[in-house]
């Protein structure tokens, strides 16, 4: 959560050089700077202060073990250092300068530009210049405070009034945006900054629309000087009723393997406390490992896992994990694993349409566990999506080393076509600190994560972070939105994820198909499957009379109900023999069919 580091900074550069070996005549050579990211932090104090750099790059056509790269770092203060680094790997080769080696001490306050030059043995070179991006201050000051629920509206945090987790707080200097941070589990936030008399702290846009500030009601504090402590915000929840919803992410569904994992969360986005249950209906291609479910479920009925919850209010959410899921060996590559998330009670919910969510994950093979995903993925290789559609990004990571990772952090530079102010952290596998720079650089820090290695504990070697962000308004058709992340495990070179791509397109006909799918999804939820004596059918909209028909595989109707209603309906199956049946649900606006298995 820190804006400024007082010890070290990691400066990352990615250089790609395409050249021929020096002993071969070169008709043409090319040098390309393929990717670059700048510093993790950029404000440092007090002087003197240490700043550490890491250089990472790739080269083609050299001889590993023989050729070396010459890396020169000019620190912008009149000094520089040169490193000779070996090339590793085949084609392409890679090289790096360890951040423990490339440490520079800045002795004077100011703003500094950094220049990096990578030169091959044949004098081919590439240059990276980072614009003024290191700001060194002569003195330090701390800004801190807390965001909490003020249940009696007295602007004092009393016993039983909890801090609010992951509330965005924004720092400005001279009305210029400096950095986002998020509150921790106690509701605390802090910034370390150079001395100034022109700082302002503002509350950002929270995911919960009903939580609003009481003191100060403006949600903004102007600071006369730093250090400045106890810059607290008391909040109230003003929306009546409850609104339950959920989201999920998953990965590593590979035919015949047991390393699939699903994480999901539920939340209440209004202010009334509510108790109920959440059910996850698994795809028939998945098999559970009961020892790898957290928390322990209340019940398991066929493909349906249910957890009860009590007193879920508008300040919190609940997280669930299913690891070591086995994907059936008959699964087809390119198909999907789909799960159904059902959050109850539905009756009385402010927006029952989001109480049931179907989430699908691709079945893949030989999958790099450190990947980037975007939802919607879009249509075709261009990832075509509509204008003004929100994007949800998820970064999956796994420690494939042979010892636990003490710290993990992720750097993700947002595309310029995304609206930075709309960023919303959705969920993560472990406690995470999030910092956002004005340039669009996001850093997710998993400090002291102690992530198990895949050799000793494969199910616990995985992690993820997920966030949602909006496009800038009305982007032109053909606009491309790309995203790539860099994942760091302790002091190792970064693991670079795949690049996900979306392209803005006019896809009204696609939207029509999506609307049909959503209509089916919103009509009803049917579970468990297999069922024994009772089948639950949740009607999710006020559609008037809805009919239900149950037929065996010979097409003989065995059950007909002419008037099932909105909410949860229990269907008695005790008179049926074991076997497969077809459930058909019909309303005047939509219909839904699903095969179920009845066991007696």
Fold and architecture overview:
This protein is mainly β. The protein has four domains: 12-136, Immunoglobulin-like, CATH 2.60.40; 140-237, Immunoglobulins (Immunoglobulin-like, Sandwich), CATH 2.60.40.10; 244-508, Immunoglobulin-like; 522-598, Immunoglobulin-like (Sandwich), CATH 2.60.40. 3% of the residues lie in helices and 51% in strands. Strand 47 and strand 48 form a beta hairpin.
Which consecutive residue ranges, at least 5 long each, have pLDDT under 50?
1-40, 507-521
The level of helicity is: under 10%
Shape: globular
Span between N and C termini? 55 Å
Biggest sheet architecture: 5 strands, mixed
Mean pLDDT: 82
The neighbouring-strand order within the major sheet is 3-11-10-6-7
CATH class category label of the largest domain: Mainly Beta
Q: For the CA atoms, what is the radius of gyration?
A: 27 Å
Give the number of helices: 1
The count of domains is 4
CATH topology-level name of the largest domain: Immunoglobulin-like
Class from secondary-structure proportions = mainly beta
Oligomer: single chain
Tell me the strand percentage band: over 45%
In the CATH classification, which architecture of the largest domain applies? Sandwich
Number of strands: 48
